[in-house]
């Protein structure tokens, strides 16, 4: 298809790049889905064709992420921001059923704060009420300025509560470019070993929005809830994917009778689970494209392949940053060891240097490199659909820029 | 595009037919949106191109529906089912700010129940708590069996409360095929004249999901909230459109401090309004296709054109139903005068007759005619994208069927 040749390299942070082959297939499905004579966006979500498609999506995620039978995979709308509220409501309902007698002021929600998104999640928990919100750690206290989210804090900084209704963390902070390490031995890994000392089921909730399906999820089975918006690695905006442990799918109405806040029906995990994610009309089209991406991932060797590729891509970009930093042209914003594979952030040193960097990139056909409006700087997002040749193109450009500036 | 020729006539109730020309344009935009070199699903929702697109969508709705400056047009996710909860939470917050002293048991929500969807809305209001739910009228009490939603009840049956936090109705009941008349003089119109006797702003909330943008909205300016899922007349599932009067966009946090239930941030109309519907990533792709449909509507003469066409389409189908009923082949399910333009429901008389009717239709290239699983029968959905030739094709088939069966 000729449109491909006009396409630019898209390093945007989300909505973000999708594989061209998937978009080409989707553009056919828009007019005629699987030979039904009806386009995918026009097809009933109750049709056997769409139900089969959804079942297959579920199975593609389950297989590739190795999701155990203790966990359900659910699809919904509203993005990560809606889950900020939903995880609180569902987990407080669960906690109420476990501890009907416990007062709201004795109910605690534990939050690990490492960036802009976990901070937003804390604020929403405070808005929703019904519990005391405990910030287990705020990584800014470990930054040199005391103000930047630029490091994963050490394990012993995390002060978890005795019996919290949830323990929340954001695996990859899209705005700030910090990420928990995937290696248990690293000081920048999540301190899983500090959890669940009583041997029970840990109420661990993880926002995986910007790293979902970019590599395996460590300790997946120990999580109560993992959620992710699709619009980073696997599809268009409008689809949220949830992995929920069975004990967190509770009768929210029974909990409300015991004093928990009512949970809007479309936010209740029980509604989603009981209806196979089809309680009401889902966002069919974003689901369809996500399903095509998941199929393609499977064909290309699954998460192992993506983990290897994503690691190489990130290493290449960090390497050129290091070079630029040594020559005084770039300045990394995140401490060594805490840097994200998905969102690499840095500054370009000098007056108007960032503007020059971005304009040069745009002329060379590379878009989406501007940092989040709240923090500025440059952000290179390296989601699954960003190809290695595109990364090489970026690295080549950055090398040239360094050479010109340090000459 | 050759795929068009393989397409069938889609009379599904939603997700439902979309114009082929729009789907063809969208399939190009999937790979390259407005020459940006980035597909629409990959483009930042903060980009100037997408912001301009959203502003234009808003203006296309405002112009065609003649939305006054007293009302905001907002876009969100989650469908009508999410609005069942959201209208209650936002309107209870508004009511709390107006009457800080009023107890929950003295706060009333008025519901006009005329079908499956308004019944679901009542159930969700009861779940959400914080007020007494008053069923103003239940149209089943006016049906012959006492069980069917088959008539719009007479005006004097509506017993509105003195000062309710909201008055709710569903303009068109997609499952049951009943609809309020658009003519004030009709006994099947909504009893607007019974409202707002005190001269104040009436808290009138309308679910317009399945008739939004099929014709003008009577008394639009008197509504507090009008909402609609896109997936009937204007786009793919995953987009909800709201028209909200300014006085219903309230500080939900201030209301919560006075004892109202906290409103999840993504459900708060204030969040949506303050951010221009871009608080978090919206469902970009469903918005895009809806925008293309709205542009096409404008080009084709706006709502006046669609009102005329939809009226003709419905009249043709009701005419053949009347003929079939006279000959004992069909049986209308809805009383004369209460029938929907968008969803025409009937039964086919005789053993296995419905099955034969559906199979014959499918062989003739017509899909989506099966009634909702909760009520059975046949349902012919006649949304904007169902063309007049397709309706003629259906009428022709129905005539043939009548001839064969009554021979």
SSE layout:
The structure is a homodimer of 407-residue chains.
Chain A: E1 9-10, H1 20-29, H2 48-65, E2 71-76, H3 79-98, E3 108-113, H4 116-128, E4 132-138, E5 166-170, E6 172-173, E7 178-179, E8 204-207, E9 225-229, E10 240-245, H5 252-257, H6 269-274, H7 284-299, H8 302-326, E11 330-332, E12 343-348, H9 353-363, E13 366-367, E14 378-381, H10 388-406
Parallel strand pairs in A: 1-13, 3-4, 3-5, 5-8, 8-9
Antiparallel strand pairs in A: 2-10, 6-7, 9-10, 11-12, 12-14
In CATH, what is the homologous superfamily of the largest domain in chain A? Type I PLP-dependent aspartate aminotransferase-like (Major domain)
Strand content of chain A: 5-15%
The helix/strand order of chain A is EHHEHEHEEEEEEEHHHHEEHEEH
Number of domains of chain A: 2
Task: Give your account of this protein's structure.
- Two copies of one chain form a homodimer.
- Chain A is of the alpha/beta class and about 400 residues long.
- Chain A folds into two domains: about 50-295, Aspartate Aminotransferase, domain 2; about 300-405, Aspartate Aminotransferase, domain 1, CATH 3.90.1150.
- Chain A contains ten helices and 14 strands.
- Chain A has helices at about 20-30, 50-65, 80-100, 115-130, 250-255, 270-275, 285-300, 300-325, 355-365, 390-405; strands spanning about 10, 70-75, 110-115, 130-140, 165-170, 170-175, 180, 205, 225-230, 240-245, 330, 345-350, 365, 380.
- Chain A has a seven-stranded mixed β-sheet with strand order 2-10-9-8-5-3-4, sandwiched between helices. A three-stranded antiparallel β-sheet of chain A has the order 11-12-14.
- In chain A, helix 2 (about 50-65) packs across helix 7 (about 285-300) and helix 8 (about 300-325) runs parallel beside helix 10 (about 390-405).
- The longest helix of chain A is centred in the last third of the chain and has 25 residues, at about 300-325.
- Chain A is globular.
- Chain A starts with 8 loop residues before the first strand and ends with a helix.
- The relative contact order of chain A is 0.16.
- The model of chain A has no long low-confidence stretch (mean pLDDT about 95).
- Chains A and B meet through helix 1, helix 3, helix 4 and helix 7 of A and helix 1, helix 3, helix 4 and helix 7 of B.
């Amino acid at each position: 298809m000729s449109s491909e040749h006009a396409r630019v390299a898209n390093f945007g942070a989300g909505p973000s790049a999708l594989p061209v082959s998937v978009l080409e297939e989707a553009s056919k499905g828009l007019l005629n889905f699987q030979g039904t004579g009806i386009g995918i966006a026009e097809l009933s979500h109750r049709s056997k064709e769409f139900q089969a498609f959804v079942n297959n999506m579920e199975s593609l995620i389950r297989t590739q992420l190795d999701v155990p039978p203790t966990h359900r995979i659910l699809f919904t709308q509203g993005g990560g921001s809606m889950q900020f509220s939903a995880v609180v409501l569902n987990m407080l309902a669960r906690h109420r059923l476990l501890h009907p007698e416990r007062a709201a002021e004795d109910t605690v929600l534990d939050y690990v704060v490492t960036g802009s998104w976990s901070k937003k999640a804390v604020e929403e928990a405070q808005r929703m009420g019904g519990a005391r919100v405990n910030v287990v750690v705020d990584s800014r206290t470990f930054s040199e300025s005391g103000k930047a989210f630029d490091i994963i804090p050490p394990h012993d900084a995390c002060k978890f509560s005795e019996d919290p209704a949830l323990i929340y963390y954001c695996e990859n902070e899209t705005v700030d470019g910090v990420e928990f390490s995937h290696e248990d031995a690293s000081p920048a890994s999540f301190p899983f070993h500090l959890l669940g000392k009583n041997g029970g089921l840990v109420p661990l909730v993880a926002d995986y929005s910007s790293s979902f399906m970019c590599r395996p999820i460590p300790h997946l089975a120990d999580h109560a809830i993992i959620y992710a918006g699709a619009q980073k690695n696997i599809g268009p905006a409008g689809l949220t994917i949830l992995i929920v442990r069975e004990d967190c799918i509770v009768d929210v109405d029974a909990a409300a009778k015991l004093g928990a806040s009512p949970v809007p029906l479309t936010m209740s995990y029980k509604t989603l689970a009981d209806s196979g994610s089809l309680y009401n009309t889902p966002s069919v089209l974003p689901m369809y494209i996500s399903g095509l991406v998941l199929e393609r991932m499977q064909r290309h060797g699954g998460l192992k392949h993506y983990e290897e590729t994503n690691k190489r891509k990130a290493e290449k970009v960090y390497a050129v940053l290091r070079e630029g930093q040594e020559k005084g042209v770039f300045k990394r914003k995140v401490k060594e060891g805490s840097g994200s594979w998905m969102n690499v952030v840095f500054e370009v040193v000098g007056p108007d240097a960032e503007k020059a960097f971005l304009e040069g990139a745009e002329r060379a056909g590379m878009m989406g490199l501007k940092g989040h409006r709240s923090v500025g700087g440059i952000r290179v997002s390296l989601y699954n659909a960003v190809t290695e040749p595109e990364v090489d193109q970026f690295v080549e450009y950055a090398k040239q820029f360094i050479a010109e500036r340090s000459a």
